Amino acid sequence: MQGDQLCPQCGQLIPIGQRDCPYCTKPQGRWTVERETLLLASIVALVILFGITGVASNLYHTERKGLALEDFRTALSYSPDNALYRLRLAQSLVAANRPDEARSHLLTLWRDEPGNSTVNLELARLAAGRGDTADAIRYFHNAIYGVWQTDPVKHRLQARLELSEYLLKKNEKGQAESELIALADTLPPDAKLYTRVAGMFREAGDPNRALSTYKQALEIDRHEQAALVGVGESAFEMADYRIAVEYLERAVRTGAASETDKAELSTARLALNMDPMALRLSRAEADHRTLNAYAFAVTRLNDCLTSRALNPQPAQPQNDLQQLTQQADKLKSQAKANILRRNPDLRVILMDFVSSVEETTAKECGTPSGPDLALLLIAKKHGASEP
């Protein structure tokens, strides 16, 4: 028909006065709606299916636990003196979260055989679960020193590891450290196990033993990255900044260092290069570091005073910051290279002032960063006096 247009998609004529092809638009729109509806229905069906699967899985495992309980109860009813049946029933009760019933059966076994390590370990775990630390420790020790039917060395090691972790969780760091010391003497040549124990030493507050245990891990496997980082972090905690720098730099090169490790590395480098009391320094270098430290401390003191002025605190008769300001004024004329060169004892006085400033401002104005943090760590390392 003259005046009609051909549809570029289907080739049909588009009637005069119409913009869209009546043959293409209707089916396309219907297909879009149907497709979206089908997609939505599929998603809903999948969600329902996953939910049903999860419920079925839980029911399956619950049913299996229930069947196991009934099986062991039945077996025990036919053979009430069978220790293995009673142990398996107790373990099934633990798995079913019925600790009181489990404990009753385990105590029956324990009375018959108090040296049975498997029974003692189960009792230790139940005691730990109810927060009875004294009972937990007693049963763990019974398990460690008792009788294991197979692979006693491995089982004793695992039991002591479990006890140590429990003690750390309860914040019983002293007891945990004692267990770890005994444990460290029995470790097999396993780098990851040494690394794990080293981390527990750190958690117990013993970075020195942690460092040596991390190093033992590296002797077994020099590529054990967690041990590499552990040596650096432990050395940093011990204020052995030379070792910290060495191992943290290696950790950075291997990609094992975290952002915290990188920050510790930066601080350790500063501490190494700023400490006037470091060994094997020339007299001139020690004097230079002392005067630099004094200058940083005065700036830190002034910044802290400014911060406090902007955020005034209740008036005090004469606080530590004011006393340090007066001391800085007295030392100002003496903190010079030529005077320090003639009077070596002045270095001690200046560094006592630096340490007092860094410790006091840390309390009054928050933990510092950069060189001031390094000076604060140097002060703690050398046991500076209070103002």
Percent strand: under 5%
Radius of gyration: 36 Å
Estimate the mean pLDDT confidence: 86
Structural class: mainly alpha
Helices and strands, in order, run as EEHHHHHHHHHHHHHHHHH
Residue stretches low in confidence (pLDDT < 50, at least 5 long) are 27-31, 52-63
Q: Termini distance?
A: 106 Å
Major β-sheet annotation:
2 strands, antiparallel
> How many helices?
17
Fraction of residues in H or I helices? over 70%
Spatial order of strands in the largest sheet:
1-2
* Overall morphology: flat
Number of strands: 2
Characterise the protein shown here:
- With 387 residues, the chain is mainly α.
- Among the domains are: 199-274, Tetratricopeptide repeat domain (Serine Threonine Protein Phosphatase 5, Tetratricopeptide repeat, Alpha Horseshoe), CATH 1.25.40; 283-309 and 319-382, no CATH class.
- It contains 17 helices and two strands.
- It has helices at residues 22-78, 83-95, 99-112, 117-129, 133-145, 152-169, 173-184, 191-203, 207-220, 225-237, 241-254, 259-274, 283-310, 320-331, 337-342, 345-365, 370-382, and strands spanning 5-6, 13-14.
- A two-stranded antiparallel ribbon has the order 1-2.
- Strand 1 (5-6) and strand 2 form a beta hairpin.
- Helix 5 packs antiparallel against helix 6 and helix 10 packs antiparallel against helix 11 (241-254).
- It is flat, with a radius of gyration of 36 Å.
- The model is unreliable at 27-31 and 52-63 (pLDDT under 50).
